[in-house]
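for the writeup, i need someone to sanity check this before i put it in the appendix. the sequnce is what the collaborator sent (i think, or maybe the updated version? ugh). structure was predicted straight from it, no edits. if anything looks off just tell me and ill rerun, i have time this weekend
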Amino acid sequence: MDILNKLPANDPVSLIAEFTAREGKADEVAELLAGLATDVRPEPGNVVFDTYRRFDARQKFVVYEIYKDRAAFEAHISAEYGAVFNAKLRTLIEEPNSVLTFLSAV
């Protein structure tokens, strides 16, 4: 992930992940995402891991994440359960992967 080298080492890492469930797979995606949240929230460097389903398009999902710093985010993306989640998610969503948008405070 090229963006990692561009993130400030000591600042919080904030991002939004978005994806769209394939036809008939939204409830399965919601269940998978709820399981991931259970794993991610206790991570030592996790500050926020909030999962949402769009009100106006129930097949679309948004995850808002904050990690205390780049090292915490790197630990998050290297977690074994994250790899398992992403492999399963790829079979359930329209996009090849979650679409990530990194944010900076103003």
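Strands lie at 13-20, 46-53, 60-67, 99-103. The CA atoms of residues 46 and 84 lie 19 Å apart.
thx in advance!!
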